[in-house]
Amino acid sequence: xxxxxxxxxxxxxxxxxxxxxxxxxxxxxxxxxxxxxxxxxxxxxxxxxxxxxxxxxxxxxxxxxxxxxxxxxxxxxxxxxxxxxxxxxxxxxxxxxxxxxxxxxxxxxxxxxxxxxxx
Length: 119
Description:
Residues 15-119 form the HTH hxlR-type domain. By secondary structure, the chain is mostly helical.
């Protein structure tokens, strides 16, 4: 009987294409609320969890927590825990997260050009 690893022919590793890199970048922003959270935190803002909840009323608490945890794991958001009673947790963007600002501004301008085409 042949073993699985002997049947599988692995292709040599190749350099990722531009499409592969775009797909990888978009995975960081996957999720209905991640872009909204980013825009709330741009400009060096530091917001408590309750402030983010109030700023984005349509998101459930569970979903907000989930999206923030994913963004923290990806290195986009920093979670700051103040050990006090009652507990205080704040969120801000990392330098890498803040570096998304120009790219998202360009995306907004691109979308606005569709709404207001030059004649």
